[in-house]
Amino acid sequence: MRSIYLSLMMLLLIAVGCQKDLPEPEAKRFTVIPMSTVNTAHDMPVTIEQNREPFKVQHHIRGNSVFVECMLPAISFRDDSEQKQGKIILYINGVKKEEVTTAAFIIKGLEKGTHRVKLEVVNHNDEPYQLEKEFTVSIP
Known about the structure:
The chain is mainly beta. It starts with a helix and ends with a strand.
């Protein structure tokens, strides 16, 4: 009886130990992920220096992802705000790719090479606010 028990335990250990937990491959085309989905509950508040520029953009490249943060003091992306409401039209290499409804987002999965990124701020009826920024990123 003891040998059957040990055999079953060995079989169970082998079966469990041989499973592979492979990560799912990322999509080949790029995706945009709103930063509002990231849990920031434990982050420390940051004091932002008031800038008179109506549209300021910061971006950082990490691998094939581009982290984009837009500062638009006069535009809100929340539906319940009393400010002018808007969204950002994202263009990659001159081609419209996404409509973004957050001020911070990640462009994931860009192919290797140099890409022109253009951000255009529009209202919910796609009428431009005459606020545009363009920058170039190089993905290694």
